[in-house]
Amino acid sequence: WFEMGEGLPDRLLIAVHHLAVDGVSWRILLEDLQTVYRQAVENHPIRLPLKTTSFQRWAERLQRYGETEVIHDPASAVWLTAHKEGSVVLPVDDPDGSDEEAASETLVVSLDERDTNALLHHVPAAYGTQINDVLLTALVQTFGRWTGLNRVTIDLEGHGREDVFPELDVSRTVGWFTSVFPVTLDVTRSKSSREALMTVKEHLRRIPSHGIGYGIVRYLTKEGLGAVTTHRAERVPVGFNYLGQFDRVATNDSAFVLSEESVGQEHDPRNPMEYELDINASVVNGRLHVSWTYSRERFRLGTITSLAEAYLKDVQALITHCLSTDAGGYTPSDFPNVELEQDALDAILEQMN
């Protein structure tokens, strides 16, 4: 607890190792902290919501699933060939530069409140999308102009708390559930923002159980380990994670608000960086913030600045399109009980119109 001086709000620093918590866990802990704080201030009994399934039980259930069930699930076969497409090589400014954490820098760019509000609340109606669909479509478009290829392979990070075991509830369980899985997004055949957005949306919808199966196949099955590891030999250059809306934790009437000060160094300086570019997005104080972490010895600041600003423009262009009068459409995943290709669906919708 830091007392900052007269007239200044104090600071509370909370540090927990990533092995113990993930992004969702932070929300649980901070919401509970606020609840307890208010109850204590108002001299009320301390009452918190009930706990959910323990992390230990979740881990044991994953282990059993990997040993006896997942390898027989046809949906899991996708992870055995997940990297056959090959990753796009990024145009690094200095290929001989160090990629240790000591050389890491982070650049943050932000949308304004109006565009962020539209992205969260109005854009999804046009094509039945989620925020990740828009953010990743913009990313592949930005990278397409940078690399000359309208395709990019990324490691996509998810919350990992998938509903694969009906008997378990981990909605209020603290732990590191995060899943990471490879995704190759290709909009080469897309001739417009509409087609690109629909293509990315469909690709993401086809990922079984939001990607949790990749880690299970890779680490918890003997059959899958060799095949997946072979494809992982080539480094995935880009990591992407949308962390969600932190405004839900620190609202205007909260006892606490998120501080803008740095929390300090998060990694050992001697560690190798996981990705050439590690991109994290989150909504804080009503604005979408996108951080680009890179090695300053491999990329010039100007390169990353241009890339990050171009990305924001691509996000804004997609927002503008989705809010236009000619936007809108359905994709096959909107009709899960029928097997349809996009062309067939378009023909049916045209006849109906």
What does this structure look like?
By secondary structure, the protein is an alpha/beta fold. It is 37% helix and 14% strand. The protein is built from ten helices and six strands; from the N terminus they run ααβαααββαααβββαα. The longest helix is centred in the C-terminal third of the chain and has 23 residues, at 301-323. The radius of gyration is 22 Å and the shape is globular. The mean pLDDT is 88.
Radius of gyration in whole Å, from Cα?
22 Å
Low-confidence stretches: none
| Percent range of helical residues | 25-40%
Q: Give the count of helical stretches.
A: 10
The quaternary structure here is single chain
Structural class: alpha/beta
What is the global morphology? globular
Q: Strand order within the widest sheet? A: 1-6-5-4-2-3
Along the chain, the helix and strand elements come as HHEHHHEEHHHEEEHH
Main sheet properties: 6 strands, mixed
Rounded mean pLDDT score: 88
- Percent of residues in β-strands: 5-15%
- Euclidean distance between termini CA atoms: 63 Å
Strand segment tally: 6
